[in-house]
Amino acid sequence: MKSTLNFPLALITVAILSACASTPTVNPVLADAHSSYDRARTNAQVTSLATAELNEAASSLNKADAAANKGGATTEVNHWAYVSKQQVGIAQETAKRKMAEQAVNNAGEKRNEVRLDARTAEADAAKRQVAIAQGTVDQQTAELAAAGANAERDRAVIAAQEQQLKELNAKKTERGLVITLSDVLFRTDKSQLEPGGVRNVQKLAAFLNKYPQRKVLIEGHTDSKGSDSHNQGLSERRADAVRVSLIDSGVGSERIATKGYGEAYPVASNGTASSRQLNRRVEIILSDANGNIAPR
């Protein structure tokens, strides 16, 4: 009974030992090398930037596997596994270095772009400054040309004024320009203008119509013959006659003022007929360009 029971047990024991003997032993160094290689192989940077180094690691790992499959010495398997793992490390470091180089290159390109942008901005700013300066020069040139044209026009206006004033026999006085209509331009002891007086007033009206900023003060004067009231009235009527003639010639009434002084302001003695004739007059005082007339 005992031998029958032990036989199967012996067979079972032999079978178990045989099964254990047929299970391959895992080499930890080789397994570690495979693990390192697999991690590197799944890294996109390593596969793209360190292809040659990773291929060398794969070749060494294949040699380790081949030695293990042939039942080679553990030292040979471990040697190639170690070499493969080191080559994986080299591949990883190579990838890191190239990534760093790319970063530096990219930074350099970016720096160059920044420098280029800065130079472009400086050039644009310089162009704008040149354009501004040119615009200023053009404006100044235009202003000078306009000023020259204005000055030329002003000179022409002044020359025309002087010519007209000369024709009107205007005299410069402390009160400004004064045009005198003598007694002979009026009918004797009357306020009615003679034809020569009318022509003179029409010339004055043409001047005033051309220069509307000008105003006039018309002053009537007489000699000392006759009563004060007669002389005062005559001086006022003669001044008003000139005023009416100017208005008839188109000069606005608001630009004309009149004043009669009678015999109050003689320009000569009243001792002779010729001197009294000088005192019988109408004086027309022209305003300045702003319409101002100095008071007597």
TrEMBL record:
Domain of life: Bacteria
Alphabetic keyword roster: Cell outer membrane, Membrane, Signal
Compartments it resides in: Cell outer membrane
UniProt domain OmpA-like: residue ranges: 173-290
Signal peptide extent: 1-21
Keyword flag Transport: no
Pfam family, one: OmpA
Gene3D superfamilies, alphabetized: OmpA-like domain
GO cellular component terms, A-Z: cell outer membrane
UniProt name for this protein: Outer membrane porin F
Organism for this UniProt entry: Ferriphaselus amnicola
